[in-house]
Amino acid sequence: MIDEKVTAVGPVRVHTIPTDKYKTNTIVWKMKAPLAKETVTLRALLPHVLQSGTADYPSVKALRTHLDELYGATLQVDLSKKGEQHVVTIRIDVANEQFLPERPALFDKALQLLADLLLRPALDGGRFVPEIVEQEKRALRQRIQAVYDDKMRYANMRLVQEMCKGEPYALSPNGELEDVDAITAEGLYRYYEQALADDELDLYVIGDVEEEKVLDAVTNRFVLPTRSPSAQAPLAPAKARGEVNEVIERQDVKQGKLNMGYRTDVTYEDDDYYALQLFNGIFGGFSHSKLFINVREKASLAYYAASRLESHKGLLMVMSGIEPAHYEKARRIIDEQMQAMKNGDFTDEEMVQTKAVIRNQLLETLDTPRGLVEVLYHNVVSTRRRSIEEWLTGTDQVTREDVVRVAGKVALDTVYFLTGMEGGADDGKTGV
User: Fold this and answer.
1) Coil, strand or helix: which one is 246?
2) What is the domain-level CATH number for residue 273?
3) Which stretch of 212-221, 227-236, 361-370 has the lowest confidence by average pLDDT?
4) Which of 165, 188, 221 lies at the terminal end of a domain, its last residue?
5) How far apart are CA 50 and CA 248, in angstroms?
6) Which pLDDT does position 225 carry in this prediction?
């Protein structure tokens, strides 16, 4: 289904996916390294500084003008965490020159631009340009602060912090606010050199391209020192602590946020991964799930109620927005839905419907270059490779017994409740 060819060009794994499905060609650079308190904020800042200028286009304005000249090419950067890996993504989308009458060499120019962003950044005397660094530090502070202002995102972050204390996964991919001020243009440049030398590097090229020409272009433009990155160890999930940690935090909020974190003891590495996906779909992943129907629709207890998986860490998160006074009742009904899953209290129709939704969701994701890269990148983060065909077949073959078995592994670890300054929960259980 997906014709992905992977070839090493020096330290870069080049993933070429030839297709005439899109009217654009997409180039995606991904670099990953372990999450670490010492580097997480430097790393959160780095791609934003890199996208602010190159040696030839040393300002945001000059760079944006050049993108406009490339028929409106787009440049985006992103930070994420996959398990306990911190991933930097830089993506350029450019028009397929075959659709343009003069057929300009847009793909070559876009690839050159990416190489320049990474290897020929705007510098000032052997360091990043201090004005650019300070400007991006201000923007980084705003991004971090925005999480505190968005209470849904804040509750998600706080649940992870409480649940994964002492684990790298507790760190936010956007870095730590208290570490921003200390970053200098010199220090960030030193980290940039370290990242290029040590990170695992992957380049995805998707579109109307020929593998041989892509590899030649990458060989000529991405000249990096050859090195041997350490082999990726399997990402083992942390074990449940046994006793449930309950944290109640009070702020001036009208709507309570009840988030619950579970250890699943299953990751992308495991044979039970497809069964876990199905479990989550029936439990809380979709609009037909037990959480949505029983907590939100039937009991009218929640403004929203859903669950999601962290596939490379082995976590299941339940998110709900409730009236503070409904804390105990909402938690009880969520617990009842989990117990129903463990008891096998779900229908064959729910199984069929969930398999269909998972299949459709995967195929829809593959319909965009960005989604295609994210699905394929699972095989880089994990030591286990899964083809799309295997993914679809594996999902179809999951049985009721598989789902119940996986449900039996799911253990509640942490309950986090963000509530108003008065009422809604027992103060005796306040964790902060």
Assistant:
1) strand
2) 3.30.830.10
3) 227-236
4) 221
5) 40
6) 77
